[in-house]
Fold this sequence. Notes:
By secondary structure, this protein is α/β, with parallel strands linked by helices. The protein has one domain (28-292): Rossmann fold (3-Layer(aba) Sandwich). It contains 13 helices and eight strands. It has helices at 2-26, 43-56, 73-77, 85-90, 95-98, 123-135, 152-160, 172-187, 204-221, 236-243, 248-251, 256-270, 281-292; strands at 30-35, 61-66, 100-101, 107-109, 141-146, 163-168, 193-201, 225-233. It has an eight-stranded mixed β-sheet, sandwiched between helices. α8 links the parallel β6 and β7 (193-201). α7 (152-160) packs antiparallel against α13. It is globular. The model has no long low-confidence stretch (mean pLDDT 85).
Amino acid sequence: MTDQAYNLRTLMEKKRKEKIDELAKDKEIKVYCVASGKGGVGKTNVAVNMAIALQRKGRKVLIIDADLGMANVDVLLGIFPSVTLFDVFFNDKSLQEAVIDGPEGVKIIPGGSGMIKMTTLDTAQQSRLAEEFMQMEGIDTILIDTGAGISMNLMSFIAFSQDVLIVTTPEPTALTDAYGLIKVISELQLKKNIKVIVNRVSGKEIALFTFERLKNTVEKFLKIELQYVGYIMDDIRVSNAVMDRKAFILEYPNAISSKCINSIADRISGISNNEIRLRTMSEVYNRLIKVFG
Ligand SMILES: Nc1ncnc2c1ncn2[C@@H]1O[C@H](COP(=O)(O)OP(=O)(O)OP(=O)(O)O)[C@@H](O)[C@H]1O
Ligand SMILES: [Mg+2]
């Protein structure tokens, strides 16, 4: 009898724990870093349009423009920020002042050129920023748009993120540079798996072929697993939307490129890297400090 009661209690305890885990899972904050080896392959377009797609699926998205040299999330959306991340770090502006409401309720922190590492902040600045960061409520997805090329800053953002989304095109130069970036990530042991998006393709087959080629080379020489998350068709409406400074998913919702982005957003929401779990903005901030500090 006692055994039975004990078993029942254990079972109930297990169920309760599962429920808490389940609830906590719902509250997780996901941090994705969008990166590429070669520049101009479509990172900013992926970040901005995927942010909108994810927001429509019920996520609460924040885009951080971490392109330190040439910030361009704002340019792509026709936004003219008066306060940037640079001012938050070095001109005593608050994070709240820098956050912009983007399309569909997506929040944006515009990048500032000349931004350097967080280590240059003194303790008072760090704690002020920590407080402000934690006040940013209702964010459950952070997308970091990065600049082209391999830098220590990029590596820090990659280390900070749970998932890295590498954007490449089928062109050999883009693939070689994607491999170069993955090699550095592997050598620094920052990630065990990386997600890949193939942009500007003429068809699904080319995208798969491109991915397989990269995957074969990567998995032959490096200890990294590549995961395919989708492709985006080469579509004139993407550059048309850029010219109009609008997100293509908003300007051309029925375009093939918009459908592709939606599928990628579906895939991204369905799979997740459970190695690192972040449940509150304060956990996110602590991780940020650990990586940059
Ligand atoms: N799927 C596509 N179809 C057609 N054109 C595209 C597509 N994706 C990107 N482009 C073109 O490539 C240009 C560069 O895209 P984007 O700014 O997103 O690249 P990026 O990787 O962020 O560049 P950078 O490395 O300079 O930050 C766009 O302005 C657009 O003209
Ligand atoms: Mg860009």
